[in-house]
Specification:
Helices cover 26% and strands 29% of the residues. By secondary structure, it is an alpha+beta fold. It folds into 2 domains: 109 residues; 68 residues, no CATH class.
């Protein structure tokens, strides 16, 4: 009952109502910290898509803003590709534009290709994480299920690796492929006069 009341209030007397323009919305969110913005984004998802249940621990959640909008991004830490679904164009990440209450990709594409692991698939993910070692995962990670192994891709801004885990034993097989990227010189983006800035506190 309490949660229903919270969502009702969010939808009816939330400071960002449809009559307000994006400038007023942006000014409102400027005074909120990262935790408050994330909570508002969580509430917006729960209100518009109550059937979408997710664990925030599975996502790297960040908040961003510029002079026009405030966005909360949910990036799935490990993208799992089940056996036979490599070509399904699965989606894993969510983005909530608090300024206009748009939730991507759901508002545009629905939830048809958004990946939500089954209980069996979650057990497979847990198996690989335990066998491979959680500390070895990095900024961008994926696990692709093959017939007799799991193929793990790990990458950061500086390096990447490809590893193979036996589906039965959990041990690494076929060796590993590791390398680093050639670092390009940092060139400032002079065309974007209003870049999105991460809110860290």
């Amino acid at each position: 009952m309490t949660r229903f009341l919270l969502l009702f209030l969010l939808n009816t007397i939330h400071p960002i109502v449809m009559a307000q323009n994006s400038t007023e919305a942006s000014q409102y969110y400027t005074n909120l910290n990262r935790a408050e913005l994330i909570q508002l984004a969580n509430d917006a998802i729960a209100l518009k898509y109550p059937d979408f249940k997710f664990d925030t621990k599975d996502y790297k959640i960040t908040a961003w803003k510029n002079s026009e909008k405030t966005v909360v991004k949910y990036k799935r830490i490990i993208q799992f590709i089940p056996l036979g679904r490599a070509r399904d164009n699965l989606r894993y990440d969510v983005e909530v534009d608090l300024t206009n209450q748009h939730i991507s990709p759901f508002d545009t594409w629905g939830m048809e290709n958004f990946y939500i692991p089954t209980r069996e698939e979650q057990e497979k993910i847990n198996f690989v994480v335990q066998a491979f070692g959680v500390e070895r995962f990095s900024h961008k990670n994926s696990i692709k299920e093959d017939a007799d192994m799991y193929v793990i891709h790990v990458s950061s801004k500086a390096a990447f690796g490809k590893y193979f885990i036996d589906k039965l034993t959990g041990k690494e097989c076929m060796g590993a492929i590791e390398s680093s990227y050639i670092q390009k010189p940092l060139i400032p983006n002079l065309t974007n006069v209003d870049p999105m800035v991460e809110i860290r506190e």
